[in-house]
Structure formats: C-alpha cells, structure tokens
Write a structure and sequence with these properties.
alpha/beta; 5-stranded parallel β-sheet; globular; binds adenosine monophosphate
C-alpha cells in the first residue's frame, strides 16, 4: 500500500513519471491537470469554469479543486493506494488533503519532488507546445506558472520536508534514467 504525491514545476516530467510509478507500484495515478483537461474537452460545467483559469496559467480556485479531489479519492480504485500528481499546490490544499486523509484514518507515505531549473523547463515546455498545442504552453503563461510554483508550491514542499516524508529527485536527464532515480528514491523512502 502506497499513498504518495509527486510534486514538481511545470515541465519537470511529473505526468510521465507518475504513469510509470503507477504501473510499477500498482497504484492509481490521479492528475488534477488531466481531470481538468478532460472536463475542458467534454465542455462540462467544471471544465468551462476551470478553463478560464488554466488558459492564463492561474490556479483553479480551491472551491472547485478541493471538492473534485475529495470525490476522486472516495472512488473504490483508490483503496489500494494512490499517487496524486499536481495536488496539493498550495498550503491551503495541504490542509484540505490532511483532513480528507484523517477522515479515513490514512496518511501519506512519500512525497516525491522532481527538480529542474527554470530555463531548462521553459525550453522543454516551448518544445511541448509545438507537439501538443496545449493552450497553456506559451512563454508568458509558462513563466507565470513557474512563478506560481515558486511562490506557492515550494511552501508545500517545505511543509512535507518538515514532516520528514520528502524525497527529492533530479528531473534532468533521459526519461528512463529519471525513472530509475525515482524508483530508487521511493524504495529508500519506504524502507526508512
Ligand atoms: P498540470 O497539468 O498539473 O500542469 O495542471 C494544469 C493546470 O490545471 C494548472 O496550470 C492549473 O490551472 C490547473 N490545476 C491543476 N492542479 C491544480 C491544483 N491542485 N490547484 C489549482 N489548479 C490546478
């Protein structure tokens, strides 16, 4: 049973590594960004609301995001553990997640942070923009998303570091190599 988070700046490869961790550990990966994008595509009320923020690189308000995560974590496929990707991004979301988990008498085992420097990330994301045409992958929006990461999400990382459950992995390098580092870091954290 593993309950874990993957945190990293935009473009750090969180989604790719989350899929691989999910396969290897047999836990469901839950990406708030993917859930939002699926809703945007389906033009659901949630998607229409979220799109206003996502296109500008802003965070979707907690009133929308928190409830969506709570509902998702109540689904039966989460019984064997989970890997949350892209949540929590603010300290208020950390508090909310704490409450959800405390209600189920559960706690996080590992928080994995992928690190990479800003210029490398901007370069990668501009490349991704050409391939995927994601509407939030243009340079001004990318820089804004990076600023939000530094301003808000680094405080989330600090909170988990204080709790002694943070493990950091260098996200620069070939994808397979990063996956090896990630799997080793998770193993070491679980053995600790
Ligand atoms: P991501 O795919 O994780 O980069 O997320 C894409 C976008 O979805 C973000 O730029 C936000 O607009 C929104 N989003 C994803 N997760 C969250 C979250 N935990 N809180 C607020 N907004 C989020």
């Amino acid at each position: 049973m593993t309950r874990m988070l993957i945190i990293g700046p935009p473009g750090s490869g969180k989604g790719t590594q989350a899929e691989r961790i999910s396969e290897r550990l047999g836990v469901v990966a839950i990406s708030t960004g993917d859930i939002f994008r699926a809703n945007v595509k389906g033009e659901t009320p949630l998607g229409i609301e979220a799109k206003k923020y996502m296109d500008n690189g802003d965070f979707v308000p907690d009133s929308v995001t928190n409830k969506m995560v709570r509902d998702r974590l109540n689904e039966p496929d989460v019984d064997n553990g989970f890997l949350l990707d892209g949540y929590p991004r603010t300290t208020a979301q950390v508090d909310y997640l704490d409450e959800i988990l405390a209600n189920g008498d559960e706690k996080l085992d590992v928080v994995l942070q992928l690190t990479a420097d800003d210029e490398e990330l901007v370069h990668r994301l501009l490349g991704r923009a050409k391939e995927t045409g994601r509407s939030d992958d243009n340079e001004a929006v990318i820089r804004h998303r990076l600023d939000l990461y530094h301003e808000q999400t680094e405080a989330v990382v600090a909170k988990y570091a204080e709790r002694g459950i943070l493990t950091q992995v260098d996200g620069i390098g070939p994808i397979d190599e990063v996956t090896n580092r990630v799997m080793q870091a998770i193993k070491a954290a679980q053995a600790a």
